[in-house]
Amino acid sequence: MSTCPECDAEIEVDEFDVDKGDQLSCPECGSNLEVVGIAPIELDIAPDDDDDDDEDDDDEEKEEGEVDEEDDDDEEEDEGIEE
């Protein structure tokens, strides 16, 4: 048995079914949890990587030759400014 660090609910986790770094959800509060230790199982709040994923998608598009319209506007504004 492990305890949710968010709501202190008892969570039954089989140590043979999880590895360090695995993520699961608390059945009581719905928090995303990460396995940070094994034998005994230790859980911690999982980092929120949603924002990083969106930024990575934008970077991949630009690498493929696609340019955001906002970037075009910035370049046009920069051309009109003399330093």
Please describe the topology of this protein.
Elements: E1 2-3, E2 10-11, E3 23-25, E4 32-37, E5 42-45, H1 50-63, H2 69-79
Antiparallel strand pairs: 1-2, 3-4, 4-5
Task: Give structural notes.
The protein is α+β, with helices and mostly antiparallel strands. Helices cover 30% and strands 20% of the residues. The protein is built from two helices and five strands, in the order βββββαα. The chain has helices at 50-63, 69-79; strands at 2-3, 10-11, 23-25, 32-37, 42-45. The strands form two sheets. The protein has a three-stranded antiparallel beta sheet with strand order 3-4-5, with no helix packed on it. β3 and β4 form a beta hairpin. The longest helix has 14 residues, at 50-63. The protein is globular and about 25 Å long. The mean pLDDT is 78.
Average pLDDT, all residues: 78
In terms of quaternary structure, what is this?
Answer: single chain
Strand order of the largest sheet: 3-4-5
Number of alpha- plus pi-helical segments = 2
| Overall morphology | globular
Main sheet attributes: strand count, strand direction, barrel closure: 3 strands, antiparallel
Gap from first CA to last CA = 65 Å
